[in-house]
Give the backbone structure.
Amino acid sequence: MRIKKILFGLFILLLSTYSFAEPKPRETLKYKCYVQLEDQSKVIREFNSVIRSSPVLAKSLLGEKVYFSDGVSSSNVIHVMECVLPKHNFIGQEAFSVSKKTKF
């Protein structure tokens, strides 16, 4: 009987500390994506996201505003060709060649 009370007490203690623990924020990952903009230009841009799946990330970027180097003018993403983590290379030849010319 005493063991049951101790186990029950430990169980309650465990539950109480678990319920007061703050959830950890999801880690933000940086991606580089080869995208087509409204003006039909194709560029590589970096995006930060908590999404860990490239296909899901690609869908979420549609309509996202991308700013040009002047910091004022922008264009929306209409198509995402490929997204990879910065340490990886693009698979598509066109994206790969553009990435070699793009400085981050």
